[in-house]
Amino acid sequence: MKSIDPANIVGLREWVDLPQLGIIGLRAKIDTGASTSSLHASDIQPFERDGQPWVRFTAYLGTQVQRRHRCEAPLVSLKTIKSSNGHSQSRYVISTRLTLGRHSWPIELTLACRKTMRYRMLLGCKALVDGRLLVDPARSYVQDKPLLALGDA
């Protein structure tokens, strides 16, 4: 039996950074039932930069005190997502770097309205697999706040 590195264990909730978007200190809910990760965004505007598709959007950080942060990222695709209640929705998909604890790797994020949700970001199973993480749902904030700074992206 292989031993499990505690650095690869996450709880039900964790602190994350999205340094390429300039987002530091965001609480994320870990959701093994969701395939794709999702970020609360509004004012989503597709545009072209150097002939390539990009998207501009406002990300919302914090739950009690709303902080807004304007972001731009290359557009990966437009994807139809089926929610847990059975509704289908078309969402923009971006790729960006995620930092969790001392780990950092690229993930895909859908941009969605999560204003009624407690957590502004959902970390889905594809990102967990790519990061080689194991979930202990009985715990929260297992990992320290990310160690990488914006300059390390």
Automatic annotation (TrEMBL):
Keywords: Hydrolase, Protease
Domain Retropepsin-like aspartic endopeptidase, chain residue ranges per copy: 9-146
Pfam families given in the database record: Zn_protease
Repressor is among the record's keywords: no
GO molecular function, one term: peptidase activity
Any GO BP annotation: proteolysis
Gene3D superfamilies per record: Acid Proteases
Tagged with keyword Hydrolase: yes
InterPro entries, per database record: Asp_endopeptidase (IPR008503), Peptidase_aspartic_dom_sf (IPR021109)
Coiled coil start-end: none
Protein's recorded name: ATP-dependent zinc protease
Natural source organism: Pseudomonas fluvialis
